[in-house]
C-alpha cells in the first residue's frame, strides 16, 4: 500500500521536470533567430535525391564501360566481362525508374483528387490548395525528367551491349576465317619452335615439380585427397541411386530397349560427371593451396580438360557401340564395325585433346603463332584422313543379323557425307584456313558426342514415360517395395521420371553445346538470368522465376491449409466433441479461405498485377448476369448452407424426390446418399429455395411407430399391456417421453392398434422395430391372440326362369319338362360363400 503514493509522487516530479525543460527550450527558441529554410537540409535523402545520385553514378560507370570496350576491342575475354557489367548496369537503371513509379502514382492520384485550378468566373480556391498543386506538379516534372534520363541511359547501355555482341561475333568470325600461308618455311619454323618450346617446358615442369616436392608436398596430397573424396562421394551416391543403370548385367541374354537406353545414358553421364568433379576439384584445391604456379596452372587445367574429353568420348563409344557386348548395342553394327568406328572416334578425340593441350602449353611458354598453326594443321589433316578411311569400311550389320558375320557398306548417302567432310577438312587446312578446320574437327567429335548422348537420354525418357513401361524397371520395383505403390501410381511415377530425364538431358547438354560453340560461362549466366527473370512477349514481361515462385508459394499455402484443416478436425474439434456437421462446415470454410489466400499470394509472387484483372472482372460480371447466374446462385447458396447450417453432414433429410443422409456439402451442390446407396447431387439453390425436411435438425431423437391388428375376440387391454411390456424391455427405447399404445379404430375385420415410442437416435429405428415385431409375434402366439387375415364376403344371386308367354298351352311337352328340370333344382335358398385370402401386404 505504500508503493502507490511513492509512485504518484515520482510521476508528478517527472512531469514537472519535462514541462520545465519544454518551457526553457521554447524560450530559448524564441530568443534565437531561426535558420533560413535553405539551411535546414533534411537528414535523410528523399527518393528523388537518391535516384539522382544513382543516375549520376550510372553515367560514370557507362563512360568507363565505353572506354573499356574501345581499349579491349580485340580481347574476347575482356569483352565478356564488360558485357556482364553492362547488363548489370542496365538492370540497375531500370530499377531506378521502377523505384520512382510509386511516388509518381501517388502524385498523380493526389492531383486528381485536388482537381484542376478554378477557371475564370469561378470562386477562388484556398491558397494552401494552390501551393500543394504547384509543389506536386513541380515534383512530377522533376520525376518525369529523371525518368527520361534513366530511359535514355538504358537505351545507351542497350546499344553498348549490342555493340559488344557484334564485336565478339566479328572477332569469332575473324578467328575462324583467318588465313595463314602454308609453306615449307612455315613448317621449318614450326619445327624449330617446337624444339625450343619442349626444352623450355621441360625445364619449367622440372623446376615446379622440385619446388612442390620440397615445399608443397602436404598441400598437394591434401588437395588430391579432398578431390578424390568429392568424386568418391558423388560416385557412391550415384551407384546407390542408379547402380543398376551404371553396369550391364552379364546374366541378361536379351536386354530390353529401355534397359539398353538407360544404361547407355546414365553410365555415360554419371561416370563422366564423377571424373569431371575429380578433375575440377583437384584443380581448385591445388590452386587454392598455392601448389600451382601461374605458368603451370593453365597447363594443368588443359591436361585435366584433355583427360575429361578423352574419357567422355570413350564412355560414349562404349555406351552406344558396345564393341564387346553386341546384345547391349544401340545401333545395328557388326562387331568389327563397332570396334573400328569406336577406335576411330577415340583416336579423333585424342588428336583434339592433344592439340588443345599443346596449344595451351604454347601459350604458357610464349611460343610463336606458327607453331599453333602447324599443330592445328596436323590435327585437321589426321581427322580428315580418319573420316575418309572410315567411309570405305563395312560396319553395317549383316542381313542375317549375326554380329560376327562380315558387315555391309555404309548407306550411300552416309559414305558420301563422310568423304566430303573429311576432304573438306583437309582442303580447308591446306588452303590456310587452319582455324576453321580445327573448329569444325573439334565440333564433329565433341558436339557430335554430346548431341548423340542427349538424344539417347531423350529416347530413354520417352521409353520410360510410355504407358505401362516403367513398371519393369528396377527403380519401379524399389518404389513398389518402399512405398507400397499400385500399378496406376507406378505408371504415373514413370511419367514423372521420364520428364526428369528430359530435363537432365537438356540442362546438361545444351550448356555444353553452347560452351563448345564459343559461348562463355558469363554468357550463359546472363542468358539464364534473362530467361528466368524477364521474358518479353511484345509488351508483356514474363518472369519464369516469379511464376515458379508463385506456384511454390501457392502449393505451400495450400498444403499448410490442408494441415490446418486436419489439425483442427483431429485435435481441437474432435477433443471438444464438436458435432460432425460443424466440423465439416469449419473444414470446408477453412479450405476455401486457404485456397483463396494461396491464390492471391501465388499471383502476387508471380509478379502479376491484380489491378490488371479489373477488365476481366467487368467482363465476368456481364457473363455472371447471363450465363453464370445459376452457378453463382449455387455458390452463394452453398455459402449460406455452410454458415446457416439448416442441415449438416450426417442429417436425414427429405427434399422433393430425394431422401437420405447428407454426405457432403460443397459450395455448388450437396451430396445425399439414399438408403439404397445411391448418391444424388442436389444443387444448393434448390435446397435454399425449396422445402427440405430434416429428421435430425437439432437432435437425433425421433418417434417410431409399429401398427398392430388383432381379431375381434381379443382383449384390447391385454393387447396394450403386452405391447408396453415388450417395449419396456428394449434398452434403446426412451423412457421420457413414455411409450404408449393408441387404439386407433374398429377395422372391417380387426381391431387396429399403434405402438408409439421414442428413440434417442433415429438410425436405430429399423433394428428396434424388427426386434419388436418378432417379440410381438412370439408373445401373441403364446397368449393365443390371433392376428386376423383380410376377409371378403361374396354373395351370388341366381333369378328364376320367367313363365311361358303362351297361356293357351296347358301341358308342356316332354322336352320342355326335361329342360326345366335343372332350373327347378337351382331354385333353392341363396347360398352364401365366404372366402378367406391371405393379405401379403397386411400391416403389422
TrEMBL record:
<keyword id="KW-0472">Membrane</keyword>
<protein>
    <submittedName>
        <fullName>Small-conductance mechanosensitive channel</fullName>
    </submittedName>
</protein>
<dbReference type="GO" id="GO:0008381">
    <property type="term" value="F:mechanosensitive monoatomic ion channel activity"/>
</dbReference>
<feature type="transmembrane region" description="Helical">
    <location>
        <begin position="263"/>
        <end position="286"/>
    </location>
</feature>
<dbReference type="GO" id="GO:0005886">
    <property type="term" value="C:plasma membrane"/>
</dbReference>
<comment type="similarity">
    <text>Belongs to the MscS (TC 1.A.23) family.</text>
</comment>
<feature type="transmembrane region" description="Helical">
    <location>
        <begin position="341"/>
        <end position="361"/>
    </location>
</feature>
<dbReference type="InterPro" id="IPR052702">
    <property type="entry name" value="MscS-like_channel"/>
</dbReference>
<keyword id="KW-1003">Cell membrane</keyword>
<dbReference type="InterPro" id="IPR011066">
    <property type="entry name" value="MscS_channel_C_sf"/>
</dbReference>
<feature type="transmembrane region" description="Helical">
    <location>
        <begin position="373"/>
        <end position="393"/>
    </location>
</feature>
<keyword id="KW-0732">Signal</keyword>
<feature type="domain" description="Mechanosensitive ion channel MscS">
    <location>
        <begin position="630"/>
        <end position="697"/>
    </location>
</feature>
<feature type="transmembrane region" description="Helical">
    <location>
        <begin position="614"/>
        <end position="643"/>
    </location>
</feature>
<dbReference type="InterPro" id="IPR049278">
    <property type="entry name" value="MS_channel_C"/>
</dbReference>
<dbReference type="Pfam" id="PF00924">
    <property type="entry name" value="MS_channel_2nd"/>
</dbReference>
<feature type="domain" description="Mechanosensitive ion channel MscS C-terminal">
    <location>
        <begin position="705"/>
        <end position="787"/>
    </location>
</feature>
<dbReference type="InterPro" id="IPR006685">
    <property type="entry name" value="MscS_channel_2nd"/>
</dbReference>
<feature type="transmembrane region" description="Helical">
    <location>
        <begin position="298"/>
        <end position="321"/>
    </location>
</feature>
<keyword id="KW-0812">Transmembrane</keyword>
<dbReference type="InterPro" id="IPR010920">
    <property type="entry name" value="LSM_dom_sf"/>
</dbReference>
<feature type="signal peptide">
    <location>
        <begin position="1"/>
        <end position="30"/>
    </location>
</feature>
<keyword id="KW-1133">Transmembrane helix</keyword>
<feature type="transmembrane region" description="Helical">
    <location>
        <begin position="414"/>
        <end position="434"/>
    </location>
</feature>
<feature type="transmembrane region" description="Helical">
    <location>
        <begin position="493"/>
        <end position="517"/>
    </location>
</feature>
<feature type="transmembrane region" description="Helical">
    <location>
        <begin position="590"/>
        <end position="608"/>
    </location>
</feature>
<dbReference type="InterPro" id="IPR011014">
    <property type="entry name" value="MscS_channel_TM-2"/>
</dbReference>
<feature type="transmembrane region" description="Helical">
    <location>
        <begin position="537"/>
        <end position="560"/>
    </location>
</feature>
<dbReference type="Pfam" id="PF21082">
    <property type="entry name" value="MS_channel_3rd"/>
</dbReference>
<feature type="region of interest" description="Disordered">
    <location>
        <begin position="797"/>
        <end position="844"/>
    </location>
</feature>
<feature type="transmembrane region" description="Helical">
    <location>
        <begin position="220"/>
        <end position="242"/>
    </location>
</feature>
<feature type="transmembrane region" description="Helical">
    <location>
        <begin position="440"/>
        <end position="459"/>
    </location>
</feature>
<feature type="compositionally biased region" description="Basic and acidic residues">
    <location>
        <begin position="797"/>
        <end position="812"/>
    </location>
</feature>
<dbReference type="InterPro" id="IPR023408">
    <property type="entry name" value="MscS_beta-dom_sf"/>
</dbReference>
Amino acid at each position: 500500500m505504500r508503493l502507490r503514493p511513492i509512485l504518484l509522487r515520482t510521476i508528478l516530479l517527472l512531469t514537472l521536470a519535462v514541462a520545465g525543460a519544454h518551457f526553457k527550450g521554447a524560450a530559448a527558441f524564441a530568443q534565437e533567430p531561426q535558420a533560413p529554410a535553405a539551411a535546414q537540409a533534411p537528414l535523410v535523402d528523399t527518393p528523388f535525391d537518391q535516384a539522382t545520385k544513382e543516375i549520376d553514378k550510372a553515367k560514370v560507370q557507362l563512360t568507363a564501360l565505353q572506354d573499356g570496350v574501345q581499349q579491349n576491342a580485340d580481347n574476347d575475354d575482356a569483352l565478356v566481362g564488360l558485357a556482364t557489367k553492362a547488363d548489370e548496369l542496365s538492370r540497375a537503371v531500370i530499377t531506378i525508374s521502377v523505384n520512382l513509379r510509386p511516388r509518381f502514382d501517388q502524385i498523380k492520384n493526389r492531383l486528381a483528387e485536388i482537381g484542376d485550378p478554378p477557371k475564370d468566373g469561378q470562386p477562388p480556391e484556398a491558397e494552401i490548395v494552390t501551393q500543394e498543386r504547384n509543389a506536386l506538379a513541380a515534383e512530377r516534372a522533376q520525376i518525369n525528367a529523371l525518368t527520361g534520363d534513366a530511359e535514355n541511359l538504358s537505351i545507351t547501355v542497350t546499344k553498348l551491349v549490342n555493340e559488344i555482341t557484334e564485336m565478339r561475333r566479328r572477332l569469332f568470325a575473324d578467328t575462324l576465317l583467318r588465313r595463314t600461308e602454308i609453306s615449307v618455311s612455315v613448317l621449318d619454323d614450326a619445327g624449330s619452335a617446337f624444339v625450343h618450346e619442349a626444352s623450355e617446358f621441360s625445364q619449367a615442369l622440372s623446376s615446379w615439380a622440385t619446388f612442390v616436392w620440397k615445399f608443397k608436398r602436404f598441400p598437394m596430397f591434401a588437395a588430391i585427397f579432398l578431390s578424390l573424396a568429392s568424386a568418391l562421394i558423388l560416385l557412391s551416391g550415384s551407384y546407390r541411386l542408379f547402380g543398376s543403370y551404371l553396369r550391364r548385367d552379364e546374366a541378361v541374354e536379351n536386354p530390353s530397349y529401355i534397359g539398353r537406353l538407360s544404361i547407355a545414358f546414365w553410365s555415360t553421364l554419371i561416370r563422366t560427371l564423377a571424373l569431371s568433379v575429380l578433375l575440377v576439384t583437384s584443380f581448385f584445391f591445388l590452386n587454392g593451396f598455392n601448389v600451382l604456379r601461374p605458368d603451370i596452372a593453365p597447363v594443368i587445367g588443359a591436361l585435366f580438360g584433355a583427360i575429361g574429353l578423352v574419357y567422355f568420348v570413350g564412355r560414349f563409344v562404349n555406351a552406344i557401340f558396345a564393341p564387346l557386348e553386341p546384345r547391349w548395342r544401340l545401333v545395328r553394327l557388326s562387331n568389327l564395325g563397332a570396334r573400328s568406328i569406336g577406335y576411330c572416334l577415340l583416336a579423333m578425340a585424342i588428336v583434339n585433346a592433344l592439340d588443345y593441350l599443346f596449344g595451351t602449353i604454347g601459350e604458357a611458354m610464349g611460343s610463336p603463332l606458327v607453331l599453333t598453326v602447324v599443330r592445328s594443321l596436323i590435327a585437321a589433316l589426321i581427322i580428315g584422313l580418319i573420316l575418309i578411311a572410315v567411309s570405305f569400311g563395312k560396319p553395317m550389320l549383316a542381313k542375317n543379323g549375326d554380329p560376327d558375320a562380315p558387315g555391309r557398306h555404309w548407306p550411300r548417302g552416309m559414305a558420301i557425307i563422310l568423304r566430303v567432310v573429311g576432304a573438306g577438312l583437309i582442303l580447308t587446312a591446306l588452303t590456310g584456313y587452319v582455324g576453321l578446320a580445327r573448329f569444325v574437327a573439334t565440333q564433329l567429335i565433341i558436339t557430335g558426342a554430346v548431341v548423340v548422348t542427349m538424344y539417347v537420354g531423350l529416347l530413354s525418357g520417352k521409353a520410360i514415360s510410355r504407358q505401362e513401361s516403367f513398371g519393369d524397371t528396377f527403380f519401379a520395383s524399389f518404389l513398389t517395395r518402399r512405398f507400397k505403390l499400385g500399378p496406376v501410381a507406378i505408371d504415373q511415377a514413370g511419367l514423372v521420371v521420364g520428364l526428369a530425364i528430359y530435363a537432365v538431358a537438356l540442362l546438361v547438354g545444351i550448356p555444353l553445346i553452347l560452351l563448345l560453340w564459343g559461348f562463355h560461362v558469363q554468357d550463359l549466366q546472363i542468358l539464364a538470368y534473362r530467361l528466368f527473370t524477364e521474358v518479353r512477349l511484345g509488351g508483356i514481361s514474363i518472369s519464369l522465376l516469379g511464376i515458379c515462385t508463385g506456384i511454390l508459394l501457392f502449393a505451400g499455402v495450400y498444403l499448410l491449409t490442408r494441415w490446418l484443416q486436419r489439425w483442427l478436425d483431429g485435435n481441437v474439434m474432435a477433443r471438444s466433441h464438436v458435432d460432425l456437421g460443424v466440423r465439416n462446415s469449419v473444414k470446408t470454410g477453412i479450405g476455401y479461405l486457404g485456397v483463396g489466400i494461396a491464390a492471391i499470394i501465388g499471383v502476387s509472387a508471380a509478379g502479376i498485377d491484380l489491378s490488371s484483372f479489373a477488365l476481366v472482372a467487368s467482363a465476368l460480371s456481364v457473363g455472371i448476369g447471363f450465363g453464370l447466374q445459376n452457378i453463382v446462385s449455387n455458390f452463394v447458396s452453398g455459402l449460406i448452407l455452410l454458415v446457416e447450417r439448416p442441415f449438416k453432414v450426417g442429417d436425414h433429410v427429405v427434399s422433393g424426390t430425394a431422401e437420405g443422409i447428407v454426405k457432403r456439402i460443397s459450395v455448388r451442390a450437396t451430396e445425399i446418399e439414399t438408403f439404397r446407396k445411391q448418391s444424388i447431387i442436389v444443387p444448393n439453390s434448390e435446397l435454399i429455395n425449396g422445402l427440405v425436411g430434416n429428421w435430425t435438425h437439432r437432435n437425433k431423437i425421433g418417434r417410431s411407430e409399429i401398427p398392430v391388428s388383432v381379431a375381434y375376440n381379443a382383449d384390447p387391454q391385454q393387447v396394450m399391456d403386452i405391447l408396453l411390456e415388450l417395449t419396456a424391455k428394449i434398452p434403446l427405447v426412451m423412457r421420457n417421453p413414455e411409450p404408449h399404445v393408441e387404439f386407433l379404430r374398429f377395422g372391417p375385420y380387426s381391431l387396429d392398434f399403434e405402438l408409439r415410442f421414442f428413440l434417442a437416435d433415429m438410425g436405430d429405428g429399423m433394428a428396434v422395430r424388427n426386434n419388436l415385431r418378432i417379440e410381438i409375434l412370439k408373445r401373441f402366439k403364446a397368449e393365443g391372440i390371433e392376428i386376423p387375415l383380410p376377409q371378403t364376403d361374396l354373395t351370388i344371386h341366381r333369378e328364376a326362369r320367367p313363365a311361358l308367354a303362351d297361356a293357351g298351352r296347358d301341358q308342356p311337352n316332354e322336352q320342355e319338362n326335361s329342360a326345366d328340370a335343372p332350373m327347378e333344382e337351382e331354385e333353392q335358398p341363396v347360398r352364401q360363400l365366404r372366402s378367406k385370402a391371405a393379405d401379403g401386404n397386411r400391416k403389422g
